[in-house]
């Protein structure tokens, strides 16, 4: 009976050792999986940060180009308006409801000169 108990005790010890080894193996796999997940998360964050920075840079470029084009169009308009009084149409002056042409000036519906 003592032999049987001793033999049974070895079986339990072997089973416990196998269970401990299996548990240690699971913990090591969990640590590896967590490390891989952390690295994937960090890489995803770096990718997202780069995409966001690129999008902001592109948006800034678009706004900058739009502002330059608006400035260019405004300058063209200003030049056109400055030349308008001297245009071949005969209109020389347009201020405060007065239109002056080669034929004379008109204020509202009344002839001034």
How would you concisely characterize the structure shown here?
With 113 residues, this protein is of the alpha+beta class. Helices cover 73% and strands 13% of the residues. The longest helix is centred in the middle third of the chain and has 82 residues, at 2-83.
Anisotropy-based shape = rod-shaped
Stretches where pLDDT is under 50 for at least 5 consecutive residues are: 87-94, 109-113
> Helices and strands: which structural class?
alpha+beta
Annotation, overall tally of beta strands:
4
SSE order: HEEEE
SS field, number of helical segments? 1
Strand content: 5-15%
Strand order of the largest sheet: 1-2-3-4
Radius of gyration: 44 Å
Q: First CA to last CA: what distance?
A: 139 Å
Rounded mean pLDDT is: 81
Largest sheet: 4 strands, antiparallel
Helix content: over 70%
Describe it.
The chain has one helix and four strands; from the N terminus they run H-E-E-E-E. 73% of the residues lie in helices and 13% in strands.
Key descriptive features of the protein:
rod-shaped, alpha+beta, 113 residues, disordered C terminus
Secondary-structure blueprint of this entry?
Layout: H1 2-83, E1 91-95, E2 98-101, E3 104-107, E4 110-111
